[in-house]
Amino acid sequence: MIEYRSFHNTDPPRIAAIWNAGQLGRGAASGLGTDAFETVVFSQSYFERDGLILALHDGEPAGFVHAGFGTVEDGSRLDYSRGVICAVVVLPRFRRQGIGSELLRRAEEWLVSRGVTSITAGPAADSDPFYMGIYGGTRLSGFLQSDVAAEPFLTAAGYHPAARTHVLQRDLVNSRDPVSMRLVGVRRKTQLGVLHQPSRATWWWFARFGRLDTIEFILTPRNAQEPVASMTVLGLDYYLNCWGERVVGLTGLEVPDDHRRQGFAQALVLDACRRLKEETFTRAEAHCPESNPAFLALLHSAGFAEVDTGIVYRKTETR
User: Fold this and answer.
1) 25 contacts 123 by C-beta, under 8 angstroms
2) Are 53 and 102 a contacting pair, CB within 8 Å?
3) How far, in Å, CA of 51 to CA of 48, rounded?
4) Distance CA 256, CA 268 (A)
5) Which residue among 55, 83, 235, 303 sits deepest, i.e. has the most Cβ atoms within 10 Å of its Cβ?
């Protein structure tokens, strides 16, 4: 008999066990203890026990679903009109029994009771309240295609793909930097610097990236103080067991409007990769929305290649 109930304080070991055995694909960290979930899920100030629903089969963990909310545009607080299904995990031996569908239905019902006007499945962009650092890699970009059970399950439940994100990686040990006169010129007149956090970090940034090991790389002209490009770098420490190598994530690349198309972004990415290689990292990962072909071309020019795709799904209508 299946029992469905909200999260209890004694449930973290059950959540970890379901996650580790859930066969979520290459983009999910595995072999995790409860401390990882405490860091990126349970200790969040906005965690609500009723948004995390477990399925138990005769008291044995069978699966769980976790729903949450996005943030307002300036990242200062939650936006309770935007609901997101952050995770749906059912153990393989309990699949195809309607458990996942019932978990999803209950999560949607809870979100609607809280007043949401739209529901997406797959945490991404400004709707990624939980699981940063243990799913998706560099950042949350929806449910990954390598998580093979996700797409057929969600489409059967009335969701459709709404946005796609390329997941790319670069081998830092064996890759070679491109050679161009523009790149040489940029490197002669700029220098790479490091900050502990972005200068304009928001509450939302601290809630997610702030819980991980991050630094900010900046590219600054040698005769000036204001950076012409900046980028957040985070260590993907939770993936060491499943990936077997030290991987670092590159995200939040920004170039002021008056400095774009001058080679600064490419120089920053390449110089950061060079520095990270010296720190014995062996691979770098970056995510690029399908809607940003210019950034995708930049990553290809820097030696990155696609390894996965993240997909955000949208509910046709709330129940």
Assistant:
1) no
2) no
3) 6
4) 13
5) 83
* In the block, residue with structure tokens 């600054």: 220
Tell me, what amino acid is at 196?
Answer: H
Q: What is the number of alpha carbons within 13 Å of residue 195 lying toward its C-beta?
A: 16
Phi, psi dihedral angles at 289 (to 5 degrees):
-60, 145
Contacts of 97 (CB under 8 A, 6+ apart): none
Q: Report which of 217, 302, 220 is spatially closest to residue 251, judged by C-alpha positions.
A: 217
With beta carbons less than 8 A apart as the criterion, state whether 302 and 219 touch.
no
Q: Of 314, 319, 317, whose CA–CA distance to 160 is shortest?
A: 314
- Per-residue pLDDT in tens (0 to 9) along the chain, 319 residues: 899 999 999 999 999 999 999 999 999 999 999 999 999 999 999 999 999 999 999 999 999 999 999 999 999 999 999 999 999 999 999 999 999 999 999 999 999 999 999 999 999 999 999 999 999 999 999 999 999 999 999 999 999 999 999 999 999 999 888 888 888 999 999 999 999 888 789 999 999 999 999 999 999 999 888 999 999 999 999 999 999 999 999 999 999 999 998 999 999 999 999 999 999 999 999 999 999 999 999 999 999 999 999 999 998 764 4
Are 83 and 39 spatial neighbours (Cβ–Cβ below 8 Å)?
A: no
Strand 283-289 versus strand 247-254 pairing type: parallel
Rounded to whole angstroms, how far apart are CA atoms 173 and 277?
A: 7
Residue 221 and residue 311: Cα distance in Å, rounded? 38
| 245 exposure class (CB count in 10 Å sphere: 0-12, 13-18, 19+) | middle
Angle, nearest 10°, between helix axes 264-278 and 181-189?
70
Structure tokens at 115: 């007043």
Burial class, 17, CB count within 10 angstroms (exposed 0-12 / middle 13-18 / buried 19+): middle
pTM equals 0.93
